[in-house]
Design a protein that fits this description.
The complex is a heterodimer of chains A (278) and B (370).
Chain A lengths: L2 H32 L1 E2 L2 E2 L2 H8 L1 H33 L3 H13 L5 H12 L4 H10 L8 H25 L3 H9 L4 H29 L3 H6 L8 H12 L2 H31 L6
Antiparallel strand pairs in A: 1-2
Chain B lengths: L9 E12 L2 E12 L3 E5 L6 H9 L6 E6 L2 E2 L10 E4 L11 H11 L4 H14 L15 H14 L4 E5 L7 H18 L3 E5 L2 H7 L2 E6 L2 E6 L1 H6 L4 H6 L4 E10 L2 E4 L2 E4 L2 E2 L8 E6 L4 E3 L13 E11 L2 E8 L5 E6 L12 E6 L4 E5 L6
Classes of the chains: A mainly alpha (278), B alpha+beta (370).
Chain lengths: 278, 370
């Protein structure tokens, strides 16, 4: 083993140790906590979560908000990424910087911005109201979706941009030369080849959306629109029901892992069996 | 393809094509005509504009001015996907998410061919390039040579009016290159397609082409058959490109058959335009036009032989390349003996040489120089 390999092995070991101490151990601890009520081992918390309508409703709400946000972010992100990747190469950096620049500021500050934009006195909302009739966005599920999309859009745009950038321009020319129109070329070549970026971006977006904590508090208008992370926080910090809070957190974790596995499966299938062309 | 004597069909003609990039003229008044079934090579060093011309023909680059007529139809405003041309790329450009079969079928699907016809067509062309058993593979499961053959089949399968090649062999190793060269030539002979082939390799151009356009700085220096270009290079640039590696300055043309360099008479086989007796200019000599009498199989006459000294000798593909210096005149030359000389001629060895006029050209210098 030469020195470099030893160095890398050492660094890898540190990473694994770090993950174990600060991720795996706390996770197991959460799971362990959720299974003990008054010194008794029981699955009662999980049964309660899956049978009580308050909890199932919050679960469904979280799931739907996360899915809707992810889908919207993927759509918007794809358009933005496609726009950037079709600019002149020397200009692309500036566009990417603009996309990423929103991340330079704290999410709290940015959400205050949305409070103003979506608020009653906002000129933007007034303009929209005059066009489409009265719109109430703030303190609703829709406002939460708006906030989450704003938060996850840069991640999605960057991952999709990367996958689009990897596509050889000569492939598009080859498609063109074989008689495929630009639109056909997009659906048969560009889109299938950018799927890895969509899966990766979708995974990140869903994980971030489902576990969002700040957005429901600031744009959701209080407990009526709380999502899982908020309920878990309240249970632990306000109510002091540690085991129930732990159980709810673990359910959220499992939910995210399940969805990510589906994305993963889709991606692998895409690699082995090609999409049917007609 | 049977070429009848009565009617020669023009497949494509370009006229005064101009293209500028940021004020620099990369294509300068290029025009040529290509007959149906002909194989044309665009040959030139990098930056000579050969690829740009190909891309203009393909429609991937818009010319600033000039016209392109394809089978009697002006195609300047027709987008690439409606031009019915095929293209083989340097980097193969196979679709990585599709199988070999789907790659070859791609152009046929875009043309909405009937399924049965399509299947036959794909099989036919995969068979032609010997890749039918690989139909279900993905491109990355094939070798470079196989990938380029798929790309060839893909371009051929749409049976295009014109086939374009963009340096298709430059990514292949020497042996594979030879095989592909042979394969492309055979396909051209059997299928009779019209082709434009971009390359910087004179050997590829000579092997494949009916016509060669030699390009330099966006201009066509010479447009002619391989034989013509080899025997009668039109400009010093063409001569240089086609292996006239010895260049002697300050030559003076005596008559149609002779030029002198210092005290030496050199027989010439060809002279450039504006050559007049008494004019100063350059002599271009192919290495194989300098015969070394001592190593010649057939007897070379002693009369007129020039004494020379060997400076260095190297082997090159079964031949022996010898650097020599003439005894009577301070002139260094590269000569080739068309066989391996073992042991190779030694430094300082006394030899004598004879010029073969068929590989020697005279080009007059600019008048302003005199």
């Amino acid at each position: 083993m030469n020195r470099m390999t030893r160095l890398y092995t050492g660094m890898g070991f540190i990473a694994i140790l770090y993950l174990f101490c600060f991720f795996l151990y706390p996770l197991l601890k959460v799971f362990y906590t959720s299974l003990w009520i008054n010194d008794q081992f029981t699955f009662d918390n999980y049964i309660k979560i899956l049978t009580t309508s308050i909890y199932t409703q919050v679960l469904m709400k979280t799931l739907s908000v996360a899915v809707i946000s992810t889908v919207i972010a993927l759509g918007l992100g794809y358009l933005m990424a496609y726009f950037i990747v079709t600019r002149r190469p020397e200009r692309q950096g500036i566009w990417l910087l603009i996309v990423v620049s929103s991340m330079f500021m704290s999410l709290t500050v940015r959400l205050y911005g949305w409070l103003i934009i979506l608020g009653e006195n906002s000129p933007i909302l007034k303009a929209l109201t005059s066009l489409f009739g009265k719109i109430q966005l703030l303190f609703s599920e829709k406002a939460i979706v708006v906030g989450i999309v704003h938060f996850i859009l840069p991640f999605v745009t960057l991952t999709i941009y990367t996958s689009l950038k990897k596509i050889e321009p000569s492939l598009l020319e080859a498609s063109n030369m074989l008689g495929a129109s630009p639109l056909r070329t997009f659906w048969r070549i560009t889109f299938p080849l950018s799927l890895p970026g969509i899966y990766a971006g979708g995974s990140i977006a869903f994980a971030l959306s489902a576990s969002t904590f700040l957005v429901p508090i600031m744009l959701g208008g209080g407990p009526k629109n709380y999502l899982i992370a908020n309920i878990a926080y309240d249970l632990i910090v306000t109510v002091g029901n540690l085991d129930m809070g732990a159980a709810l957190s673990f359910v959220l974790f499992v939910m995210v892992i399940l969805i990510l596995s589906i994305f993963n499966l889709l991606e692998r299938r895409g690699q082995h069996a090609p999409r049917k062309m007609d | 393809m049977a070429r009848s004597n009565s009617k020669i069909e023009i497949a494509i003609s370009l006229d005064s094509i101009v293209k500028e990039y940021q004020g620099e003229r990369v294509i300068d008044q290029v025009g040529f005509q290509l007959q149906e079934g002909e194989f044309l090579s665009l040959l030139g060093p990098s930056g000579s504009g050969k690829t740009t011309i190909l891309r203009i023909v393909a429609g991937l680059v818009k010319p600033d001015s000039g016209s392109i007529i394809l089978k009697g139809k002006n195609i300047e405003h027709i987008p690439p996907h409606l031009r019915n041309m095929g293209m083989v790329f340097q980097q193969y450009a196979l679709f990585p998410h599709l199988t070999v079969y789907e790659n070859v079928a791609y152009g046929l699907k875009a043309r909405r061919l009937e399924k049965k016809v399509m299947k036959e067509r794909v099989s036919k062309y995969l068979e032609l390039v010997d890749l039918l058993p690989f139909a279900k593979r993905k491109p990355k499961e094939l070798s470079g040579g196989q990938q380029q053959r798929v790309s060839l089949a893909r371009a051929l399968a749409t049976e295009p009016i014109l086939l374009l090649f963009d340096e298709p062999l430059s990514n292949l190793d020497a042996r594979l290159k030879e095989q592909m060269l042979h394969e492309i030539h055979t396909l051209h002979r059997t299928l009779g397609f019209t082709a434009i082939y971009v390359t910087h390799d004179q050997n590829e151009a000579l092997y494949l082409s009916d016509k060669i356009a030699v390009l330099n700085h966006g201009k066509i220096e010479q447009f002619a058959s391989p034989e013509k270009i080899l025997q009668h290079p039109k400009t010093p640039f063409v001569a240089d490109f086609f292996g006239y590696v010895n260049r002697l300055e300050d030559a003076i043309l005596q008559d149609n058959n002779t030029a002198t360099v210092g005290q030496i008479n050199v027989p010439i086989g060809h002279q450039g335009i504006n050559s007049l007796a008494g004019k100063k200019g350059q002599l271009f000599i192919r290495p194989n036009a300098i015969q070394v009498a001592e190593y010649q199989q057939t007897l070379v006459k002693d009369k007129g032989n020039l004494p020379a000294v060997v400076l260095d000798a190297r082997y090159r593909g079964g031949e022996t390349e010898v650097q020599i210096q003439l005894v009577n005149e301070a002139v260094n030359l590269t000569a080739v003996i068309p066989k391996m000389i073992v042991p190779s001629p030694k430094q300082g060895e006394q030899i004598s040489i004879v010029f073969d006029s068929s590989g020697i050209c005279f080009f007059p210098g600019d008048d302003s120089d005199e």
